[in-house]
Amino acid sequence: MPLIPEEPQIHEKAQGPRATPASGRTAPTPRPVPGPRPAAPPRPGRPGPLRPAPPAQRTSRDAAPAKTGPSGPATPAATAAGLQIQLIPASPEGALDAAEEAVDLLLDSGRTPGDVLVVTTGDPHPWAAHELSFGDAAYWAQHDAGDDVFYADAAVADRAASRPVVVVALNGGPEDAAVTALSAAHSRAGTLLIVCGDPQRINSVLGASA
């Protein structure tokens, strides 16, 4: 009896793409492909090659060292004559970053950028250095506009107007700069004073500046 040649087997892996899954098999659910993250709005401290325009809205970074509260970071606080004082422990090298995180948390909790003044005792904040490169008048014009967070060195903090919140970064500098910064900040903070630095030094300087 003659043998009938078998039909060639077509293995599934050799087939082309199917429009529908094979009978009895479940097609794997495609995993979503994450799209590009939206670009963050410009913010003080991240200047580009051109002078940045004041941002319409600031957003917080992903990481934060403290939890948000009704008026800012949840940290041990003291009150004096109606002014709330919050201390954020930080080294001189980390004080400026801690201040930036505090500003982010304040904005996330509903504060407007114009509510916040940041005072540094060591190296100036990059935003302040950038704005001062356009001249003293242009720098203080940003302050007078009052529509964004303003960064000032301790040496000129006494020229700044009062704002509801003042953040002090003890990021180095001589002891008298810390006294000057905290004295100016204490007199200019309307409802909240946040100080980032060594707690023992903060309490010592606060006592000296009272």
Question: Can I get a quick summary?
Answer:
By secondary structure, the protein is of the alpha/beta class. Helix content is 27%, strand content 17%.
Give a structural overview.
This protein is α/β, with parallel strands linked by helices and 210 residues long. The chain has a 6-stranded mixed beta sheet with strand order 1-2-6-5-3-4. Residues 10-23, 26-43 and 45-76 have low confidence and may be disordered. A hairpin with a 2-residue loop joins strand 1 (77-80) and strand 2 (83-89). The radius of gyration is 28 Å and the shape is globular. Helix 4 (175-188) packs across helix 5 (199-209). It has helices at residues 95-108, 126-132, 136-145, 175-188, 199-209; strands at residues 77-80, 83-89, 116-120, 150-153, 163-169, 189-197.
Structural classification: alpha/beta
Could you give the count of β-strands? 6
> Oligomeric state of the chains?
single chain
- Beta strand %: 15-25%
Strands across the major sheet, in which order? 1-2-6-5-3-4
Question: Which range best describes the helical content: under 10%, 10-25%, 25-40%, 40-55%, 55-70% or over 70%?
Answer: 25-40%
Features:
210 residues; alpha/beta; 6-stranded mixed β-sheet; 5 helices; 27% helix; globular
Layout of SSEs?
Elements (H helix, E strand, L loop, with lengths): L76 E4 L2 E7 L5 H14 L7 E5 L5 H7 L3 H10 L4 E4 L9 E7 L5 H14 E9 L1 H11 L1
Parallel strand pairs: 2-6, 3-4, 3-5, 5-6
Antiparallel strand pairs: 1-2
Helix pairs in contact: 4-5
